[in-house]
Amino acid sequence: MTYQLSPAGPATEADLRAAQERERLLAAELPRVREAATAWRNGLGGLLAALVGFSLIKGRSDISQLAGSWAVWVGILLLAALIVGAAGALLLIRAANGRPSVVPARELLSRNTADHIEAVTAAGALRRGIALTLCCAALLVAAVGATWYGPARDKPVLQITVPGGTVCGSVVALSDGNLTLKTAAGEVTTDLAKASAVQALARCPVPGA
Amino acid sequence: MTSDNPAPGQDEPLPYTEITDDTYAESAAKDFTVTELAHGTLALRGPCPRCRAFIEIPVVSSIFRSSRSIGSWPRARAPKSGEAGHKEPMMCTCEDNHPGRPKGRSGCGAYWTLAITPPAQ
User: Fold this and answer.
1) What CATH number is associated with residue A181?
2) How far, in Å, CA of A86 to CA of A75, rounded?
3) pTM
4) Contacts of A41 in chain B (CB under 8 A)
């Protein structure tokens, strides 16, 4: 089944002007898309650059200082931002510059027709590129926020084995061979000369566990 | 206005004249072929009813338009008259030499209208 053509009655000068306007719009359509894509690409690039610059101003910048699960989630956010941002950038570049493709000569269309098809494709790439780039910015903001305000990793603790048992806690002071640890029961001072073992732990073992 | 459709192969190029005739639409309806290139984009191909130059006329359902106003979103404009099944204004778009053609225009000046009926579902 194909489209059917039939006369649509007498044409008027308004029909001629409408056809001329369509011709004019189609001739300028692809440059308009390219211009808009270039402007969006530059604007969103500036937004991301400003965002990255802002994240360097203050706040924690090393995710290894975050608590374990938070560091994992920040890593996932950064990876997602990288993937989404790369896809968005490629789409914006594709919208602004076209796709490097070779078309079989027998499929060549008139300039206006080919330009319109490219313009529609480029406009779609531009919309998707904008959405993905803004999504990348949101992911970056979330990652930076989580890095700044997420809980810090616990400080390493020492577990000292002495004749009377074990003492575990973070180091408070060391003087004259005596080590003071901050334990769950308060500060405890231990004579290192009597210690049979000193072990560094991520956290103290829970009593009874 | 009346037609001055010349015989093909004449020596002198047709002058540019904005002109229509009932036979233009009849000739185009008979001679033109329709190809759907993409969703919402048709290509009508055939000889111009007046100057007989082979032309390709795109019929589109939407055209990209961007606004510089704040908060605008670039997207295709809603279709106005390009939808299949509607009356579609046509004009010759050839690049042949037609003396008297205004700068920035194309074709020989012939125009007509066609009804494009989509295939039955």
Assistant:
1) 2.30.30
2) 16
3) 0.71
4) none
